């Protein structure tokens, strides 16, 4: 991980935490797996104010470009659960992919999926909302940004 741990924006951290607390009794294996990933990620996350989040961190409503092991590129947006729409490339933060990518940075490699169906992706580009169209790509991010 580029910053040594996941980096989450404070209000997003609280929203995800609330979702986890409200869904403790889910019986479905896939959803339990995602909730466990989110809980583990949140336990090791660095929580920052919005103004302190580096531009290359995946946040809710960020548009992300990833590259798979086969070299295939995909672009999608991480959204709150109620906005999930795979046909429009909107991936819920509480999906396997969303839970694995939230809080990560450009250049990070992620693995997601159920056992036996694990996929590996590299984050190539992040475009956060409300950042005046500033984007960070793997090519541009040759120096590490300091987090205060």
Automatic annotation (TrEMBL):
GO biological process, one term: regulation of DNA-templated transcription elongation
GO molecular function: DNA binding; RNA polymerase binding
Gene3D superfamilies registered for this protein in UniProt: Transcription elongation factor, GreA/GreB, C-terminal domain
Cross-referenced Pfam families: GreA_GreB
Domain of life, per lineage: Bacteria
Stretches assigned to the Transcription elongation factor GreA/GreB C-terminal domain: 56-127
PANTHER family: REGULATOR OF NUCLEOSIDE DIPHOSPHATE KINASE, TRANSCRIPTION ELONGATION FACTOR GREA
Protein name, UniProt field: Transcription elongation factor GreA/GreB C-terminal domain-containing protein
């Amino acid at each position: 991980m580029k910053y040594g741990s996941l980096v989450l924006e404070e209000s997003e951290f609280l929203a995800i935490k609330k979702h986890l607390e409200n869904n403790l009794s889910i019986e479905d294996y896939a959803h339990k797996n995602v909730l466990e990933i989110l809980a583990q990620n949140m336990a090791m996350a660095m929580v920052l104010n919005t103004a302190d989040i580096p531009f290359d961190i995946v946040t809710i409503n960020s548009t992300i470009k990833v590259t798979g092991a086969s070299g295939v590129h995909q672009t999608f947006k991480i959204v709150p659960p109620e906005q999930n729409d795979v046909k429009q490339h909107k991936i819920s933060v509480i999906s396997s992919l969303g839970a694995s990518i939230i809080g990560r940075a450009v250049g990070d490699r992620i693995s997601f999926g159920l056992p036996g169906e694990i996929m590996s992706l590299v984050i190539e580009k992040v475009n956060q909302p409300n950042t005046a169209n500033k984007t960070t790509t793997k090519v541009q991010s040759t120096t590490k940004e300091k987090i205060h």
